[in-house]
Amino acid sequence: MTERRKFADAVPSLVLLVVAVFYCVASFQYSPSARAMPLGVATLALVLVLVDLISLGEGRISRIIRRIFQGSGAPAPVPGLDGQAGQRFPPARELAAFGWIIAFLLLAIALGFYIAIPIYVTAYLRFYGGKSVLVAAATGLGLVAALYGMFELLLGYEVFEGLVFGDIM
Amino acid sequence: MADIAVIDALQISLSALVGSGGAFYLLLGTIVGLVFGIIPGLGGPTALALLIPLTFGLDTTAAMFLAGGIMGAIPFGGSVTAILLNTPGTAPNAATVFDGYPMTLQGRAGEALGAAAAASSLGGIFGILILFATLPLAREIILLFSPPEFFMLAVLGLCAIAVSSDGKMLKGLIAACFGLMIAFVGYDNVGGGVRFDFGFDYLWDGIPLIPSLIGLFAIAQIVSLFLAGGSITDNPSAVRVSRVGDGVLAVFRNWGTLLRGSAIGALVGAVPGVGGTVAAFLSYSVTVQTSKEPETFGKGNVLGVIAPEASNNAREGGSLIPTLAFGIPGSAEMAVFLGLLVLHGLQPGPSLLLNHMDVITSLMLSIAIASVLASVLCLMVARKLALITLIDVNFLVPIILAVSLVGAYALKSSMYDVIVAVVFGAVGYLMIRFDYPRLPLVIALFLGEILEVSYRQSMMIARGDWTVFFTRPLSLGLFVLIVLSLSVPFIRYLLRRRAAKRAVAP
After folding, report:
1. With a CB-CB cutoff of 8 Å, which residues 67-86 of chain A face chain B?
2. How would residue B506 be classed by pLDDT, with cut points 50, 70 and 90?
3. Which of A17, A144, B95, B202 is deepest in the core (most CB within 10 A)?
4. Does the beta-carbon distance from B489 to A69 stay under 8 Å?
């Protein structure tokens, strides 16, 4: 196993370690009774994450920890989608997936849902899904019509109209 | 035996079903459940997470009929594609594939569907009857509980679920701890202050539960679908759906298999965290092991369809026992369902059981009816329903995303809730990506408040003496169960080592 690969496998645990330490430190600003439970849980999380980090190693202790918690002394399989070993997707595709979601979120915040939905659905289906403009636009408009009917007409909700049009978040 | 309160509540539910539009919501929930069950990768938690915001304008009983319809229909929806297309709609339906698909290849798809439909319906009813019989007893047990017992019970629920994540116990416990840490954000219910708000007024009420659930299940699933791409299947073979009656009759001829499968499902369902997949496979393997013709399984034996299907539907009733009685959800679907209860102002657990029995009976009634209704509907249009799997997932991604985010907004008319849903979507995907089970985190979000409040109440009652958790017999008993549940992996390890040593010894 290369050093780079070892580090990559440890990144999630290291991030959780930082979060747990931050949480522990933050809890000290509250009274002893208010912080008792959060501090206790965060300390336990800290210990468990440290054990997890140790289990990533190749020494005897690491193997014992893996045997006890994973049922096998072998290194954990490469985590993938739905836990299927080896089914990893390129980070660029994963980022693209979140890119589309964040783009929709920003569009909805700026212009409201009823404008953002047809724009997003049409763009997504046309540029990512490879559908014709007609199919993409029809899906977008159909969806916004269905949501308008369900939320505004049937349930009586007022859906967000966007910062540009003066609504508040 | 059911007590008077349960029977009165059942009467209220029946009149709501007939007179207040309950039947409409039940039918709607059943159809939605079937569709979500059929499409692999979606399933019950996603369907419920998407529908929670839509129930906000409904009264609680109508919401129960809708949710019950979904929960009752999902298990059978997944078996349609398992039998016709070799593609299980939900994980527990994977056990149905072994004999269901070979039956389709032999031209016996109708028989397999008929057997699955009858077994699902009867299994679902069996599970609800078990729940119906257990609830009065659960009400009596709950009255024996005080804060130390509730604290121990919450810890036990978390440990049992974390440990049940096979091969991921450590990550399950880490996820549970982080779920609790998130649950502690916001208003302190005992002391009155606000914690971990970091200057954001929005966090005073804590991290909102339902947007978090929408993110963890619906949005995380969108990312998975985006990455998987394509369609579920390319071309469903030209299957004939005939001789359905033969399949239905086979269930009645093999009632022993049906009862055994249902009992396994209800029993396994009642254990938090074990889940429907274990129930279905356990039921299948017990049927194979006790059969006089084990070599016929995997080649189109109808018993291989009846056993997992009965178990899968009976599990719903079983998993409602810890969910409703103690507020400890037994599965991801039940965790999201608890979110629905919270949205309607109902506190899961003892108060629900003692004060809102009509809500529970509405749910039981709708699950039982939906189990039958879903089977009948499915048999009528099975061939056409299977075509759903031809849909390009590129269409599903933007549709589910838009519905999820509008739903997250509609709860409190807050775009901050939408941002929370997206953030938790990222968290949910990263948990899938790095092999952390999501269920312990979700359940910790629910149990965080119970855990802390009951701990602090216990300490106040005992004037700071922590031995209160070990001096009360019931609390001590629960503590022993916690220790035992945490010992399971160690015991498994020792047993494996012993078996390996025996194998090596001459």
Report:
1. 67-72, 76, 79-83
2. low
3. B95
4. yes
Section B282-291 average pLDDT: 81
Q: pLDDT by residue (tens digit) across B25-82?
A: 889 888 888 888 776 666 778 788 888 877 877 888 888 888 888 888 887 887 887 7
Chain B contact present for A114, CB below 8 A: no
DSSP three-state, residue B379? helix
Q: Are B221 and B400 in contact (CB under 8 A)?
A: yes
Say which amino acid occupies B351.
S
**Type of residue at B104:** T
Contact residues, chain B, for A48 at CB < 8 Å: 170, 173-174, 177
Does B466 lie at the interface with A, CB-CB under 8 angstroms?
A: no
Contact A157, A142 (CB under 8 A): no
Indicate the SS3 state at residue B240.
Answer: coil
A57 phi and psi, to 5 degrees? -75, -170
Interface predicted TM-score (ipTM): 0.90
Q: What pLDDT does A81 receive?
A: 44
Nearest to B179 by CA among B478, B477, B436: B436
For residue range B354-395, what is the model confidence (pLDDT) as tens digits? 788 888 888 888 888 888 888 888 777 766 666 666 677 788
Tell me which amino acid residue B322 is. Answer: P
Q: What are phi and psi of A45, to 5 degrees?
A: -60, -40
Those residues with Cβ within 8 angstroms of residue B211's Cβ, 6 or more apart along the chain or in another chain: B408, B411, B417, B418, B420, B421, B424
Q: How many angstroms separate the CA atoms of B438 and B429, rounded? A: 9
Quote the CA–CA distance of A81 and B226 in Å, as a whole number.
12
B373 contacts: CB under 8 Å, gap ≥ 6: B26, B27, B30, B69, B72, B73
Closest C-alpha among B72, B117, B70 to residue B96: B117
Q: Give the single-character DSSP code of B195.
A: E
Angle at B402 between CA B399 and CA B403, to 5 degrees: 85
In the structure encoding, which two tokens stand for residue A106, read together? 């920003």
- Shortest CA gap A61–chain B (Å): 15
From the CA of A79, how many Å to the nearest CA of chain B? Answer: 5
Name beta bridge partners: B359.
none
Is the CA virtual torsion A127, A131, A137, A140 positive or negative?
A: negative
Q: What are the structure tokens assigned to A146, written together?
A: 């269905």
What is d(CA B478, CA B307) in angstroms, rounded to the nearest whole number? Answer: 33
